[in-house]
Design goal:
The complex is a heterodimer of chains A (323) and B (628).
Chain A: H1 2-29, H2 44-53, H3 59-71, H4 73-76, H5 97-132, H6 137-151, H7 154-168, H8 180-210, H9 213-220, H10 225-253, H11 257-262, H12 268-277, H13 281-309, H14 318-321
Chain B: H1 2-19, E1 29-33, H2 47-56, E2 61-63, E3 70-72, E4 75-80, E5 86-91, H3 105-116, H4 134-150, H5 156-173, E6 176-180, E7 183-187, H6 195-199, H7 209-215, E8 216-218, E9 225-227, E10 243-249, E11 253-258, E12 272-277, H8 281-289, E13 295-296, H9 304-317, H10 319-327, H11 332-338, E14 352-365, H12 382-390, H13 394-401, H14 431-440, E15 463-468, H15 472-489, E16 493-498, H16 500-509, E17 514-516, E18 519-520, H17 527-530, H18 547-558, H19 562-580, E19 583-595, E20 600-601, E21 617-618
Parallel strand pairs in B: 1-12, 1-13, 15-16, 15-17
Antiparallel strand pairs in B: 2-3, 4-5, 5-7, 6-7, 8-9, 10-11, 11-12, 13-19, 14-17, 14-18, 14-19, 20-21
Helix pairs in contact in B: 4-5, 12-14, 18-19
The chains are: A mainly alpha (323), B alpha+beta (628).
Amino acid sequence: MTTLIMRRLLQLPLVVAGVLVVTFALMWIIPGNPMEQEGRQPPPEIQRAMAKQYQLDSPVAFLGGYAARVSGVGWVMGWHDRPFDLGPSMRHPDWTVNEIIAAGFPISATIGLGAIFFAIIIGTLAGLVGGLRPGTWADGATQAIALLGISLPSFVVGSLALVLFCAYWRLLPIAGWGSPAHAILPMCVLSLPFAAYISRLLRFGLVEQMTTDHLRTARAKGLSRAQAARRHALKNALLPVLSYIGPATAAAMTGSFVVEKVFAVPGLGRHFVEGVLGKDITLVMGIVLVYATLLVLLNLLVDVLYAWVDPRIEVAGGAGAQR
Amino acid sequence: MRWIALAALLIGGALTVVTCERSGSRAEIVFSSADVFTMDPQRMSYMQDLRVARAMFEGLCTIDPDTNEPRPGVAESWEVSPDGRTWTFHLRADARWTSGEAVTSDDFRRSWRRLLLPDTAADYTALLFGIKGAEEFFAWRSGALASRAAEGKSDRASAEELWRETLQRFDESVGVRSPDARTLVVELNAPIPYWADLCAFPTLAPVHQPTLERFQRLDPATGMMTCEPGWTKPGTIVTNGPLRLVEWQYKRGMLLERNEQYHDADALECTTVAIVPIEDANTAVLAYESGAIDWVTDLTADFRADLADAARRWRERHRSEYDALIARGLSVDEALAALPAPDRAKGERNDVHALSAFGTDFWSFNCRPTLPGGKANPFADKRVRRAFALAVDKETLTNRVTRLGEPIATTLVPRGSIPGYDSPTGLAHDLDRARRELADAGWIDRDRDGIVENAAGEPFPVVDMLYMTGNPRVKNIAIALAAMWREALGVQCELRGKDGKFAKEDLRQGNFMVARGGWYGDYTDPTTFLDLSKTGNGNNDRAFSNAAFDALLDRAATELDPAVRMRILSDAERLLVEDEMPILPLCQYVTLYMYDPALVRGLSRHPRLSQPLWRLHRANPAPMEPAK
């Protein structure tokens, strides 16, 4: 176990560096200039001055400078005042990327964690209903709702929720951020697709488990359907759910553009997409850095949980380590 | 169960911590706007940034929001020399920074120097190029930095030496002097009649030098004076305008309050204003409907034409009462507030306001002789351009396509927007003449197949129409134009929608035949629009070049008599919109505001729409009895 954790933690910087280089290459080939303003073009000398200021005149110089600044090497060497400095945002020169992430990440992470929490509870309940009584009307109803949850886009559900809860019934505050009440709708809307997915994973897992030999034996020995499911089927049926929750949590915590845009939540998802559209290279790379790190860490956590749920899995190496 | 309860507790706790930072009381006026990019006056260029900067910073002059005339700002008076080239500004004694220090002429001199440095990479540097020696100074510094880089120098000493030389050169060669703390003398290359108007532009506002200096660093690698982020944050930034910055969180909002240090603080009507950035157009409307915001600054929801219709219906029903109230001397908002409430059930509204803006919606014709790839460009011929312009029915466009009833435009400079300027007539909708012009250019339907051909029998190339995606209005206009041209002229059109950045790249490379354009004026002078068509102008996407037009602009630039100058500019515009036609003007832009006229006071209806935030306030609870 310790070996696995150590190895993954050592791999982390390499994975993140690789992802960042690819991100940078993609951002680099997008046409346009981050400093350019809507509809107007500064004279060519100004454009050159702007490019030089952000080292945009040479991709190698940019990447080199970025690596030294972000890794802390530049700080150790005394070139920079601070370590782990993600630089200023290119589109919003008044803000550093560190500031933007520090302000946006807690917001997105809270909404994301809340959404995953809702999703696990609702999804598990719905999955149990269907999985224990496959083919009944309750199964059909929950699976139909789940299918709807997966296929309805968030901007439709989000706009509908806004109109109903905020404009029509006036139960919740609209748009913005400032009180826990502001977070309720975004959390619920964000949780829907995750809940639907979890319920489907669990339902099919349970149905499969319930027909296995050891379950039949358990039933034959006199356990009720519910008892047999709880003691013998549920743990195995939860494994695919578990492997889904890791990346899902990372995705939810780094923010959903659509949900954040509809509810005017100042979270990372919105900053990320607007960064891509505005070719804000430093901001996009900063957010990707956070996302990649989170993804690696949460996958590691899932692997550890796997070992705890299913002792047959060998974590120190072999197939288990692949997740 | 225990696990679930624990997780719920943790998330609830995190939520409380994350959300409840400051839940202060609501500002007097809350409005939604696009997000502010920067609060550094010298670097800004977006409309929403400039709007806030006008409230936070005060330049030598200010612009009267209702009449659009320059008024004294930090300068209490100024004189212009007889040759129109030397302006002497006298600063008021009671102009103060929020730190309590006096605003001096040296603050202006250094701020303008900063605007002129290539190091600042300011968008609006060229606004100062009218000053003697300014353009040369900018070019010299750019060149010096480039040759330093070419020599491979990257040491601190050489950067510092170049910086010292730069400061000295500015003092010696650029026509901005501060003989004493309250006098600023500006020497221009040629008379600029609208110089006072420019002095009110926020990028020419002074910034507090001691604050700025704490964040400036000389970068040894490039030799440039760079500025670290942070000096514009609340608590750090020092300003001199009517409002001061209290709170600013990235894409989350801004809070401004009355600046008690301001020399005219007693006359300010505003106490606090808050700005909430809401990107989603529908959410902004819902936020307004729920009372969370008082003013939607740019109503862009897809159903906005219906909202505007609802407001028009209501106003039409009360037209005579409204006219009577205006005749009694009430302002537009007061009159609207005094009318009977609209009947929402009948689809009426009184809170949607369509205001003409100081901008023109147009399409560009590519004037390059050939298209990329060497193909001949039919639009290089001005007769073809005129034919396409004459074939457009603009009334139909604004009444049936955009459905906002924008004032149609036949000129680039919005008609009647500049005092003393007589707009040329331009080209009206005339199908017969359109076909004649096209035939004169050699394009005639020779084989009666509905498509025009040239003498060699080749059909007119498929017209490549480039537009930016993301705005349904633009796409609808493109579809309508294509239909009009197909019908009237017998040409085939192909729409090519591209995302903003990609479209811009195509514009730059001349990869289009006609393309969507548009321009908002920066200052009250025809040149703010006409310069677009100057040979080599950075925003001349059409690559239009005409010696006679350039000569007229050059002549206007040295003309001393304002009336004669305006006539020359009018002649120049006539050349553009009646003869050469590089640009096809469609209509004047209309901005839709949403606010309750009984609640919000202080907004201006002048087309410049430079809204004076320091004037915004709530109307008294009961202004007058509704005239039932």
